[in-house]
């Protein structure tokens, strides 16, 4: 296997529209565990309105990278910058207030609550103060927003159903809707396609494309489903052994010999 590309700071994508703002910058990020580098000098940018995919073999550092960006882990070196403000090591709750949202590989829905109630709770996480939650209206004024998100994700027939009674694919769709509920600046989606059947996967991809096209949502996707990534994302980053191996448009990544050797296997 060829040596990974240099970990020098990544330039903006060559085909980036002029004037498009950089939402997220990751500069020389490193994270080690017991002397083993899980993330080794990774740098990249996420542009406003972009859908960026991050792929790589198991153990390549994808989840560790996500967790360093999102404050679950503190990197050993490097910087994370959101809209020009350094957020390296900032707590997840503080990042929420700056408009950063995420999903997890394991679903984070509340099974005893309805679809609508789950969305209201997701909205409350990003809005208001403790006082407004204690003394304001029970729904924090978010029922209308929740119903609009339900309609956008085409879940009207499920609005009053308990989340725990939904199929796994429907729960994944709800999980994605919750991540976008408060109109976040940046969303990081961790394995959104995992375990979802083909019909529901098509629905999820359609809604993610739509929220990007219609609302300009900016998000990053970690995913093992190559067809999902290549058909959804506008740009793809490949990690191998904790380093950035390749970066480019989906068609270029599919044809890259180093990626084929390291990951695709065909």
From TrEMBL:
- The UniProt record lists the keyword Translocase: no
Q: Which InterPro entries is this protein grouped with?
A: AAA+_ATPase, ABC_AA/LPS_Transport, ABC_transporter-like_ATP-bd, BCA_ABC_TP_C, P-loop_NTPase
Q: What keywords tag this UniProt record? A: ATP-binding, Nucleotide-binding, Transport
A molecular function annotated in GO for this UniProt entry is: ATP hydrolysis activity
What GO CC terms are in its UniProt record? plasma membrane
- Annotated ranges, domain ABC transporter: 24-266
Q: Which domain of life is it from?
A: Bacteria
What is the protein named?
ABC transporter ATP-binding protein
């Amino acid at each position: 296997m060829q040596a990974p590309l240099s970990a020098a700071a990544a330039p903006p994508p060559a085909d980036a529209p002029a004037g498009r703002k950089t939402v997220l910058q990751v500069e020389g990020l490193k994270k080690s565990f017991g002397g083993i580098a899980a993330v080794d000098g990774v740098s990249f940018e996420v542009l406003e309105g972009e859908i960026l995919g991050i792929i790589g073999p198991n153990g390549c550092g994808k989840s560790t990278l996500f967790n360093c960006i999102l404050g679950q882990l503190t990197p050993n070196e490097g910087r994370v910058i959101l809209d020009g403000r350094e957020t390296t090591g900032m707590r997840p709750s503080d990042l929420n207030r700056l408009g950063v949202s995420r999903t997890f590989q394991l679903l984070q829905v509340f099974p005893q609550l309805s679809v609508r109630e789950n969305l209201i709770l997701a909205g409350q996480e990003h809005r208001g103060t403790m006082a407004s939650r204690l003394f304001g209206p029970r729904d924090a004024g978010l029922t209308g927003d929740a119903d609009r998100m339900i309609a956008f994700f085409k879940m009207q027939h499920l609005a009053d159903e308990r989340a725990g009674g939904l199929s796994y694919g429907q729960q994944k769709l709800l999980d994605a809707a919750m991540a976008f509920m408060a109109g976040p600046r940046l969303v990081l989606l961790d394995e959104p396609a995992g375990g979802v059947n083909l019909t529901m996967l098509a629905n999820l991809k359609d809604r993610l494309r739509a929220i990007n096209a219609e609302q300009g949502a900016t998000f990053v996707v970690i995913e093992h489903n190559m067809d999902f990534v290549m058909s959804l994302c506008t740009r793809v980053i490949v990690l191998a052994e904790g380093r950035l191996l390749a970066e480019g448009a989906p068609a270029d990544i599919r044809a890259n010999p180093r990626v084929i050797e390291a990951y695709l296997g065909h």
